[in-house]
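Task 17 of the worksheet. Students: predict the tertiary structure of the chain below and write it out as structure tokens. Keep your answer in the requested format; marks are given for formatting as well as content.
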Amino acid sequence: MNPPRIRTPAAPVLIGRSGELHSLLEAMTHPPAVALVEGEAGIGKTRLIHEALRQPPARGRRVLTGHCHPLREPFPYGPVFELLRGVAGDRVAGLSPVCGALRPYLPELADRLPPAPEPLQDVRAREHRLFRAVRALLDALGDTVMIVEDLHWADDGTRDLLRFLVDDPPAGLSTVLSYRREDLPGARLPLGRAYRHPPGTTAVLLPLKPLDVHGVRGMFTAITGVSEITTCLADELHRRTAGIPFVVEEVVLALPGGVAGDVAAVDSGVLDDLEVPTLLQEAIADRMSLLSPPAADAVRAASVLRVSAGEALIGAVMSGDPAEEDGASAVREALVAGVLHEWGQDSYGFRHTLAQQAVYSALPGPDRRLLHRRAMRALADEDPQPLVQLAYHAREAGMVDEWQRLSEAAAATAREMGDLAVAVELLEELLSDARLGRAERARIAVELSRDAVLGLTHRRAVELLSTVVRDEHVPDDVRGEIRLNVGLLLRNQMGDYEAGRICIEAAVEELRERPALAARGMAALAMTIWDDQPYDVCRRWIERAEELVAGESDPAVRTAVRGNHLALLMSAGDPAVWDQAETLIGGAGADADRQQTARACGNFADAATWLGHYERAQRFLAEGGRLSAECGAAFYEGMMDGTALRLDWYAGRWDGLAERARRTLETVHGVSGIASDAHLVLGLLASAVGDWDTAAAELNAAGLADPGNAPVTVLATASGAMTRLRIARGELDEGRAEAERGIARLRRKGIWAWSGDLVPMAVVALTRGGCPAEAERVTDEFAEGIAGRDAPMAAAALPACRGVLALARGRTAETIEAFTAAHAAYAALPQPYEAARAAEAAARCRMSAGDDGGAGDLALLAEEFTALGALRDAARCRRVLRGHGVNLPSRRGRRGYGDQLSPRESEVARLVALGHTNRQIADALFLSTRTVEQHVAKVLRKLNVSSRAEVSRM
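Model answer:
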């Protein structure tokens, strides 16, 4: 067992309240002022006030604090006199004689107060004199911040006194009052009547709202020290806590020891296992104790229903009688008390999930089951029946057979509506229950396996299905189908390619009596990007599959096999495949056939992107995305999202691309192939700005760290990018080794059409690493491998390789010609980044040869790189120009920029926002560290921020 993690008791910084903090600080420091801080329990009223007092402008001011209490002893004006005792140790001069009226209330100040005045018989006169005395004392104190917390519990006398003070405040007094509006008495006005501030008084109302998802994310990272969390976790944490800071803090602090420091281990599943924090349980119990029995019953009924519901449904569950009229008044009382929350028209529930759990967990087992049975009876009359809710209540009521029936019906309905995630969740719950019989488990496992291969969530499904596969009593043909789908999950979603291949091969043997499914398995084994099986092996698998389905009547099976066959031919650059692909897409049928057509479109788009057919890739993505959305295949949609990231990288559409890639990583739940695409794009983008550390980490995550379980296509591009990175760092030996590993993988696979991103950099690494003969051999192999193939990106890369070889031989004219041809070929794709790099190589060669036109071209290319976002490439071009004595327009800034960032400062700000150090920025932009320091200082000043972190947030 891990020792408990020591955590700070609260977030070290105030999250999501910058505007409110500024307004409150203004009121505190510009008396006379009144600030009303309003918000529900746990929203952070006290934290905001304390944070304002910590700010430099508020320091040095006298602060007097009083509290109103729910169980107060009979002491009129107690909170105000409590705070006035805070001046006991201070010197107070020039007190008005009326202050003597305070002697009975403030014996601690007796030695400094004037003599007590003559007693007054009239109660109102006596009260008025006392109020004047308090005001006079506060006036004598000078600049003072008076804080009264929890005004909703104030007695009438205290509220009258405070109203007197704020209606005519002393010149130096800033009054801060906090309260919960829902707990205010009467008309729910904090001072008993509407407050209208007098002329010359600063007045602010600060209603604190719950944090949004971004704020919840900030609290989590501030409390735990974790740099970032997934969108999935942030969304779930926000849903459970409703963004109430106290609840967020309690939940985060309740995470099991060590988990909060390990982002990989923190997910919504961890939150599922958490108990309701003790302080929150106690807070809910306190509120429940103040309710009448019917209102408490309504709250308990709402906790069993779990989702927001109307008055009639809550009433039927609390009493068992749908005609019961007490439900409305009970719900109303719970709403007024703030225990229930109104979510919409006749829709009532809990403010956050944890409040529901706190009430539900306090119910004895027999009471819970009774209420669940009542809920089933009430919900059964609705049309259409809410099957998911009915299944839940049946399970919690202990009605196993009914739960199974309802869950399967709900899963079927979800499947028909295209919501496979719900279907998978329901079937997983069924399959995890030990009370199911063997036959039912096998049947449900088949359904689950069919649905799971189309979704993104997979780990629990694989575990449950693997248990069924190991059951020797399951018939071979049933086991074979389940095993086939487990193999697909292992391969496609989990990225365990070797285990997936072994599983699918075993399934093919078990499915000998079911040729259609066996053919599906063979077609899967023919997908050549997933392992190091040579192209010829994949071809033999797909040919066997085609033979098996030749007479198959099911169009979905034929489409599945044919789609994989065409994708295999496409990946090899077969020029005749495009018309066949269009024919397959145009013949899409219904239901399962549309699913397989959607999958084929995704595979076609993937292959077309690697080949350099970007218009075709865009067409396949559009059609595949439409079909995937129609059939609810989240995995296919995610697969196409990954391809779209790469397509936008190649096409030079980089604005917002990194953020999209990060969002993709957060939403695909670790699905291997899609995650590889996102990591690859992040690595390429980081490399383009010279962020070598990030680039290396992302390229390794894309697959280089575990090449046995990464798509071969991604590996080829990642290997080329890593080779370039190593060379840029001056690590020639490591760069050459990386290139050789990448080339070896392509040779085993036998598909050179994928190597457009790798071979040019491999040739550079080999020539610079002293292996020119090997560089020529690789180029010749490459040329032979793509001869007659329809692979435009590889075709554009070939003259780039020849340009590198010519440059190494010192053949200037040949070098310029080759790189110029490469530029034209890349531009035609279009692939603007590689086109600009090829043009840069040609321009630099021309400059070295004395061609004055090369400098002009290089200057234009620097601007092209800047427009793309390739800051390091742009800086490299400018450095070359300066080295040749070419004068460039200054990018440092000029008087005309004023408070606006100059072009150079914009480049520096962009790298600061990415988290670069000054040293990294200097390396990326070919500047000195001292120059970067000056630019960073100007960026912070012009953006009016005090830290680099604020630049990132902007």
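Marker's comment: The beta strands are 33-38, 62-67, 144-149, 173-179, 202-207, 341-344, 347-349. The chain has 45 helices and seven strands.
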